[in-house]
Amino acid sequence: MHVQARCRLRVALTLSLASLLAACSSIGETTRNAMSAITPYKVEVVQGNFVSREQVQALQPGMSRQHVREILGTPLVTSVFHADRWEYVFTIKRQGVQAQSRKLTVFFDGERFVRAEGDEMPSEDEFVATLGKPTGKIKVPELQATEAQLAKFPAAKKAADETATEAPQPQRSYPPLESR
User: For the segment 24-33, what is each residue's pLDDT rounded down to a tens digit?
Assistant: First the structure.
């Protein structure tokens, strides 16, 4: 009898589990439809140094490492095993925009710049143009009121007229922020 009770319990658990899984699949479909309408916010990720075409063109053979660092900034990757080169890697990932990735390798002979290799870098203007593209049309409101619109507010017009006829106020003098 004890064995029969265990069998019944196993059958009951199996049927319960099967019914729960069946319920989950129908809820999953509804949930998937609802979740497809909701998109989570994705953080903009910018890593590395942006190097422009103008910066690469400013590099001249024979420049010191310090001079190259002043033009391009601190390299993202320097290696003990490859002390003769610096890696400048730039990536940007934004929601709704294809990820951008660029790499520039700068080679040295001792302390002097020899050459640079890598992706073709955009000019500063080209790069900025890729950043600020609005996704929809922006309606700019008219910022100047007409006489008809101003006539709706007689109190404001009266106050403006009174201000225009008053004598100019003397300029105020404020104490210095720091002691001398």
Answer: 555 566 666 6
Q: Are 65 and 85 in contact (CB under 8 A)?
A: no
Three-state DSSP class for residue 162: helix
3-state secondary structure of 3: helix
pLDDT value of residue 33: 67
Q: Smallest Cα–Cα separation from 145: which of 132, 134, 129, 156?
A: 156
How far is residue 165's CA from residue 21's CA, in Å, rounded to a whole number? 82
**What is the reported pLDDT for 50?**
87
pTM strictly above 0.70: no
Q: How far apart are CA 99 and CA 14, in angstroms?
A: 48
Select from 85, 83, 81, 123 the least CA-distant residue to 102.
Answer: 123
Q: How far is CA 159 from the centre of its chain?
A: 46
Q: How far is CA 42 from the centre of its chain?
A: 9
